[in-house]
Structures are given as C-alpha cells and as structure tokens.
C-alpha cells in the first residue's frame, strides 16, 4: 500500500496484505462499499459513500455500519503488526457518535495503533464526514482493545 502523506511505499508483510485484501473483499465490507485509501503498519485510512444499503430510516449512515467500519479499519491498522501465525480479535469497543452523515456523503475512517503489547493491542479511530468544500467534520471516535491470538488464519489466495 502507498503511504499517501510521504509518497513512499511502506512495506506490509505478504500475510498482512493477503489478510487485508480478504477483509476488504468480505461480502459485508463490499456491500458497504469500503475501500482502503492508505495502509501502513499501525495505521489505516478507509472510506465509503453513504448509500441506501448503509443508511437508516433518517437517510443517514447507520450506527451499526459505523461501528463495523471502525472495527474493520482498526483491524486493517493492526494486521501489518501481527506475525504470520497470529491473529487478533476485538475484546472491547467504546464508540461515540457525534453527528449524522447523510446519504450521498463520504465517510472516512482513520485508525492508529496506540499500543501494541505482547498480548493486547489498543487502537484509536476517528471518523470524518467529508464536506463538499473539502472540510472534514469529526462524526465519531472510538477506542478498541484487541487480543493477540496464536492462531494461523490463512487468507484465501487470489
């Protein structure tokens, strides 16, 4: 993946690339239209456009979709930090939704690993509504704890 800020390529291990691809190509993420904008060890930025399949009765991004995309983006930041024989699962998530994201708007999710310990990984994620003038409005924040597992998960080969 490309590091957009510096324009350089940040190496992501092959197993993490395969897992990241499998995660983004999972039917739910594809249904939501999630795409990776930038990924590097310990951080990731993703985006989706709010559509009828991802909104609620108020025609705004559904809270459940917000929680799920925060969790997925957090995992995409985590994957490059894991060994090939490891996986991680979320054990707790504290999320605050600050404002709505209307149908048709783009939402971006930015996740950063703030602690990668021997057994526990903690990430922070911020979600932004992208405005027509290029401004970004913070619409959600989250902190997620993950536990490392000694489990060899094989992503399907393309």
TrEMBL record:
InterPro entries: ACOT13 (IPR039298), HotDog_dom_sf (IPR029069), Thioestr_dom (IPR006683). Keywords: Hydrolase. One of its GO terms (molecular function) is fatty acyl-CoA hydrolase activity. Its EC number is 3.1.2.-. Residues 61-129 form the Thioesterase domain. Belongs to the thioesterase PaaI family. This is Acyl-coenzyme A thioesterase 13.
